Amino acid sequence: MTESSEHPEPDAGPPARELADVPAVEVITRAAVMLMSAAAEKLGLSADDPDDSPHRDLDEARRLITALAGLVTASAEYLGPHAGPVRDGLKSLQLAFREGSAAPDEPGKGPGEKYTGPVW
To answer: Quick check: is 16 in a domain?
Structure first.
């Protein structure tokens, strides 16, 4: 018996793909989902009461939402059917930021609004 048959590798799931084999739309969409998830955490949206979330950090959320807005704006033409849901997610985060701010930004001055336009 060889060493590898005595100690089989644990099932690691599907084989990893080479980055070169991943379509651009998938890379962009995954990056957008990661930014959305991180921004939601920084807004405290995973907690029952966002104001009491230990992860709430509006300054960090602003940065993530602005990065997401830039990515979505720059890549919207490539996202095909994913563009609408990604834009909707971005808008929801922008609105949640506005609602969660003690002193909300003026329309057009909120996170990412220089790329998306004012969000109400």
So the answer is: no
Residue span of the structural domain in which 90 resides: 22-101
Residue-wise pLDDT tens digits, 57-79: 999 999 999 999 999 999 999 99
Cα 120 from Cα 118, distance rounded (Å):
7
**Rounded CA gap, 64 and 111, in Å?**
8
Asked if the structure places residue 35 within a domain, the reply is yes
Segment 76-80 long-range contacts (CB within 8 Å, at least 24 positions apart): 78/24, 78/25, 78/28, 79/25, 79/28, 79/29, 80/25
Cβ-based burial of 86 (10 A; exposed 0-12, middle 13-18, buried ≥19): buried
Q: Where are the beta strands (DSSP E) in the chain?
A: none
3-state helix, strand and coil shares in percent for the chain, rounded to the nearest 5: 60, 0, 40
